[in-house]
Write a structure and sequence with these properties.
Blueprint: H1 2-17, H2 19-43, H3 50-64
């Protein structure tokens, strides 16, 4: 875990000093935000949340398909 932290810290330090790295860092921040939003949407709510609704819908569609 420490190796990962050190490597990530070195990479971020290099990105901060590079003008092209600023754009790359912004993409990382945006990607992290999107992943967080998706995880929050599908993980929260349990069986009554979005994932529960999707599971119910997929189950109903699957039941209608011929075996």
């Amino acid at each position: 875990m420490l190796k990962f932290y050190v490597k990530a810290s070195e990479t971020l330090r290099q990105l901060r000093s590079d003008k092209a790295g600023v754009v790359s860092f912004e993409y990382v921040v945006v990607a992290f935000s999107v992943v967080t939003a998706v995880l929050a949407t599908f993980a929260v709510g349990g069986p009554t949340g979005v994932s529960g609704a999707l599971s119910t819908a997929i189950g109903k569609v699957t039941a209608l398909l011929p075996h």
